[in-house]
Amino acid sequence: QQQVKQSPQSLIVQKGGISIINCAYENTAFDYFPWYQQFPGKGPALLIAIRPDVSEKKEGRFTISFNKSAKQFSLHIMDSQPGDSATYFCAASIGGLTGGGNKLTFGTGTQLKVEL
Amino acid sequence: GAVVSQHPSRVICKSGTSVKIECRSLDFQATTMFWYRQFPKQSLMLMATSNEGSKATYEQGVEKDKFLINHASLTLSTLTVTSAHPEDSSFYICSARAPGAQYFGPGTRLLVL
After folding, report:
1. How do residues B61-78 score in pLDDT, each as one tens digit?
2. Between A and B, how many residue pairs show a Cβ–Cβ distance under 8 A?
3. Number of neighbouring beta carbons within 10 Å of residue B15
4. Which element (helix H / strand E) includes A11?
5. pLDDT tens track for A29-53
6. Does the distance separating the beta carbons of A41 and B105 come in below 8 Å?
7. Do B41 and A43 touch (CB under 8 A)?
8. Which three-class secondary structure string do you get for A31-97?
């Protein structure tokens, strides 16, 4: 009930291409869905987040698409760059406007490698 | 942006000793901090929620007496791994709660020999 499933486990994309990572959740009480980027040996950093009242949110090269009926959300990285090579985690929490500060359930992570 | 620090960044200790990890919110006050554990190439698993001035709330399966948490001020939470064993070796990450978000520290790598 509390799980967030993430795929793929790893992803290789050519420079300039689009990276797509998908997540699915079961708990319909989740109402805050962030994506985090983590470099080796570092803590996660918030990239972008969405709430279920919108279907898409874009910030620079990063876009979240959200499908409430399917209980799925995805991260799209446009014009992927070698510097984007990192591990990406989706997450979910409960709490509406304060959801970002609440207990997070993380997906299993996706190792992205952007090749030249 | 909000900054969270952790100290030490890396620690090696002998089996049976205790290790204390500090988590500080540098430019904001955090009544709530979270402690996570991460094994290599795995996800973050929430260990406990640390509340300033009260007892921590531990997740199921996390030993309270093994992982002691103290949140004595609005900017500092500590995690003490007591009587550490090799299986406690891991990457420990804290986060501090701000309005509508939480900010993560850089992590502490613990190696128990």
Report:
1. 999 999 999 998 999 999
2. 55
3. 12
4. strand A10-14
5. 998 999 999 999 999 999 999 998 8
6. no
7. no
8. CEEEEEEECCCCCCEEEEEECCCCCEEEECCEEEEEECCCCEEEEEECCCCHHHCEEEEEEEECCHH
> Over chain B, what is the mean pLDDT?
94
Which residues are CB-contacts of B60 (< 8 A; sequence separation ≥ 6)? none
Looking at chain A, the whole-number percentage of residues with pLDDT higher than 90 is 82
Least Cα separation, residue A70 to chain B (angstroms): 23
Across the interface, whether the CB atoms of B99 and A104 are under 8 A apart is answered no
| Paired tokens of B75 | 């900017």
Place of tokens 């709490």: A95
Question: Which residues on A lie below 8 Å from B95 (Cβ)?
Answer: 43
* Bridge partners, B21 (sequence order): B79
Taking CB atoms and an 8 Å limit, are A101 and B93 in contact across chains?
no
Collapsing DSSP to helix, strand or coil, A24 comes out as strand
In A, what residues contact B, Cβ < 8 A?
A: 36, 41-46, 89, 97-109, 111
Contact A108 B43 (CB under 8 A): yes
CB contact under 8 A, A89 and B49: no
Within chain B, what is the greatest distance between any pair of CA atoms?
40
List the structure tokens of B53. 């001035």
Q: Which residue of A has its CA nearest to B43?
A: A108
CB B45 within 8 A of CB B37: yes
A39 neighbors A47 (Cβ within 8 angstroms): no
